[in-house]
Amino acid sequence: MRPTVDRLFEAVIGLQATPSRKLRSATPQQWLDGLISLECSALGRVVQWATRVVHLSRGASASFTNEVQHSRHPRVERAPQSAYLLTVTCAQHGSASTMLQPCTLFPLGRPEGGIARAAEPRGHYCRRPDGTLTGEIVEAATASVWRSLPKTPLSYAKTVIEFAISECHRYGITSIQEASATTAYLHALRELEAENRLPLDISTHIVCAPGASTGESEASLAALINVADAFKSKHVHTGFVKFWLDGAPLPPNPTQCDLDANGKADPERVLVDYQKLLDRISAYDARNMTCKIHVAGEGSVRLALDVYEAVRKRNPSGPKHELAHCNAVHRDDIQRIARLGLTAEMSPAIWHAPVVQFAPHLLRWPFNEILATGAHMTIGSDWILTDNPSLFDPLAHLVEMLEVPRSGDREGLTKKQVAAHALCRMITLGGAEAVGRERMIGSIEVGKMANFIALDRDLSEGEFAGATVLKTWFEGRQVYSAVAGQVGI
């Protein structure tokens, strides 16, 4: 259904914005004026981000409604004449793949020529029961919005990346996987590396498909992957590719791909079809590039496993690939993860958060079932969905319920200590193994990089809750201290 211009007022891309309480109770124009003038720090948490598309007209009035569960949306009283994108963007992800933008209004042109047109395939505009638009734009329908954004200056990108690096050091992180690398991101990393300002080991998963949320065409992204080696450096490792197979199982608009009545992936929720996925992954597998597939529903997991199985038949000795998230895996597919030699990346680290109550059947990471198969497992924060990249509190929740198969070297340890040892390995050496870096990082051994941290407790006892990083070292140099002014001492 073609959206009507006079109903489209606001589109929210990403997660919830977090303006102050004063702004939330203000009129729409007061809210807008106040939000534009906010400093990033005034949003409360710099690592949270929001991008809001606002349709304005001179003199247009609006009133807040509360018709849609989980969200508040303004309703336009008169049709807007022009479309604008309001960005109040801070750091996203562990390495800030969504770049820093100033608080600015960007004109997008007349609505009928921009995002107000019919939604692109596998995307939609959300509507109220009476047919009016709520303003939310879902999945591929966001593509035209992202393409309308001006190119992010590298100076902004570098500023955000440096902030993200400092946050990683604060929480004891010295290496990361960037799950949505783009052209601008890689250029920013290259400049930082050349300036000796990149004290973090980064494995960049360059997005292949779909490209809706990147602001780049799939042709541009494919070209970037083809020249990925040109961006390799001491701390940047570019032999990784990312696919988004479905959306997210989060309210109020879950878009994960479930299984249909025939046990197949629901074709209406698949963002990359089987043949395209098979062809692309086969090509990158032949180049020894690790592929990470975003899977958030049982249907997308099964489709991804089918593709990986076909790829392995073509090339039995290819690299270790990944399933990202693994929050919903059908019991018939759990054994296949180990059999295909895949990494089960368990993320986002929100299994202890209240949001899980909204979709317990979809947010039920099968840690114990996957561990029982012997499959390789890692844990990721997915910083876009958490206040900070720390894993300590999520691990505190896991350590009490994890069932780790016992072996001879664990005799005499309590069940909690066994689980703690397993979790510590997952977030250190296990992560290094997932990106093929275990010979250089992931443990303290002769010949490896001197990346390590000092904490206020022994995590091997399983007491993760509230753990504090005291100091962080990267390549033998102290890069963080909990005591102000002591970095480098």
From TrEMBL:
<dbReference type="InterPro" id="IPR011059">
    <property type="entry name" value="Metal-dep_hydrolase_composite"/>
</dbReference>
<dbReference type="InterPro" id="IPR013108">
    <property type="entry name" value="Amidohydro_3"/>
</dbReference>
<dbReference type="Pfam" id="PF07969">
    <property type="entry name" value="Amidohydro_3"/>
</dbReference>
<dbReference type="InterPro" id="IPR032466">
    <property type="entry name" value="Metal_Hydrolase"/>
</dbReference>
<feature type="domain" description="Amidohydrolase 3">
    <location>
        <begin position="115"/>
        <end position="480"/>
    </location>
</feature>
<dbReference type="GO" id="GO:0016810">
    <property type="term" value="F:hydrolase activity, acting on carbon-nitrogen (but not peptide) bonds"/>
</dbReference>
<protein>
    <recommendedName>
        <fullName>Amidohydrolase 3 domain-containing protein</fullName>
    </recommendedName>
</protein>
